[in-house]
Design brief:
By secondary structure, this protein is mostly helical. The protein contains seven helices and no strands.
Length: about 130
Amino acid sequence: MSEEKDEPHYTGHRQRLKQRLNLSPESIADYELLELILFFVIPRKDVKPLAKKLLNQFSTLANLINVDKEKLLSVKGTNENLYVSFIIARQLIHRVLKQQIINKNIISSWGALIDYLKVSMGQLKLEQFPRC
């Protein structure tokens, strides 16, 4: 009689999570979205505990992607590539929101302007006046 080896529960987890993202992005929990980023930053390692730890420590995705480099890198398991990923995410968000208000009548897109200002200046410690 041959014994079947039970595969660990995490075997195929990355592929299953990517499939769920493709089928229904809005069904992905915040920690799972962070896990997807961590897959590329930290290959061949279970990153679910780190994703949950980061969200627990920084409370929200917004706090996390805007965290100071030193604070992020002080968390065991993080690295420079994760910090760079957050810079990329911030810039993508910033540019998408900026493109929604450029060359538009500000009065008619007041909500878009507020969204842009929150993202571009909401985490700053000193007040600034943006140039569009």
